[in-house]
Amino acid sequence: MLVDEVESFTEDTQGAIRGLTRLQKVYNLDTDRLTDGWVGGTQAHSILTAADCVEVAQFLSQRHEFVLATSWLRTALSRVDSEGDTTMSQQDVASQLYVYSMLAMCEQDGFAPLLSQSLLSHDIFYSPNAATAKLYLLALDESCSWYDPALKLDEVDMTEDEHHSFNKMCRGEPKGPRGLKCHYVHYHQPSLLLAPFKLEEVVISPPIVLVHQVISDTEIQELKEASLSKLSGCETVYNVITSKASTYRTCDKGWVEDSDAPVAARLTRRVGQLANLGMTFSEQHQVACYGLGGEYKLHRDPLESMDLSETNPAGQRIATVMFYLNHVARGGYTVFPLLKVAVAPVKGSAVFWFNILHDSSEDHRTLHGGCPVLLGAKWVLNKWIREGGQKLQGHHCPRDEHFPKEYFYV
């Protein structure tokens, strides 16, 4: 396994490389432009050196991302001499590039000959050294028995089609359904008659709506202040197929209770009014901050094996409300690939949907994910509403054929 053949990387270095390559793969970013600081049409002040590019390539090879690793080595090869770095030579970089291009044959047929021609154009020929000799011998194994695609960075249980659809929609393709409408919603509640909710239809079936101007700038600031001391790195999720640790969500998150700040209790009441559901067993507010490259892979919100019972009065997550707490410069869409819909994060708005059908079964169409942040950061607040107490209070989940006109809109 190649993991033993390269140096270990610190957690911070791994996170930075994962973020860069995540952006590169999702948004089809060119390696040369990315290393020159160009991200999403904006040039950053930081420029990566040849040594940085080699380090990225070594980490990618560790994860069996050989095709991508070769692109980083080609960039390193083009700039190593001009930088005057005495710690490495063009020959050293070329040796690694030659070996990685051979290893890439197990990942993509016909890749190695192309890279070999690239090396010949530099009048450089492969000469094994201590760092690449073992890898060279491994590359000679044409059976590729050592190759393990489960080590790749996208280790989440997603099919190739799901990856393709997710990435395509993160780039804004396609644009989603047409002919949908906006509505003022008040449910005939006196408190909402003068200030109704502003709902924009996103999908009719299953019902997904975007609520505009539902949280103020002042409330957002109060929530951020209440959550700052509670933020911590997101938990590691395990792939149930491979039993390998994977970073579904790349962010910092914290939980804010209603008792932590007046704004939290106020938002809980507002969500109850919006959803027209009881909030007795709703979860705490989850505040999350996604930095550059931060994302949440495709998933569904319902909890596994969560039934309503005397020992578990809260029950299943029947609905999700996600508030967008800032404007995201580029990226960060919420994507529903099975519905061909991507929701752009707009500060002060919230996206709302039901996770289960009227018969309490999971609605698999609500598969969704958070696209990587291309520029800036992304702050969100998640509120999950549980099924406990809904029937006692006369609340229910709408049937699709009754939604939205007979449920949301008046």
UniProtKB/TrEMBL annotation:
Pfam families registered for this protein in UniProt: 2OG-FeII_Oxy_3, P4Ha_N
Keywords: Dioxygenase, Endoplasmic reticulum, Glycoprotein, Iron, Metal-binding, Oxidoreductase, Vitamin C
InterPro entries: Oxoglu/Fe-dep_dioxygenase_dom, P4H_N, P4HA-like, Pro_4_hyd_alph, Pro_4_hyd_alph_FE2OG_OXY, TPR-like_helical_dom_sf
GO CC terms, sorted: endoplasmic reticulum lumen
Family note: Belongs to the P4HA family.
Function: Catalyzes the post-translational formation of 4-hydroxyproline in -Xaa-Pro-Gly- sequences in collagens and other proteins.
Protein name as catalogued: procollagen-proline 4-dioxygenase
Species for this entry: Graphocephala atropunctata
Lineage per the UniProt record: Eukaryota, Metazoa, Ecdysozoa, Arthropoda, Hexapoda
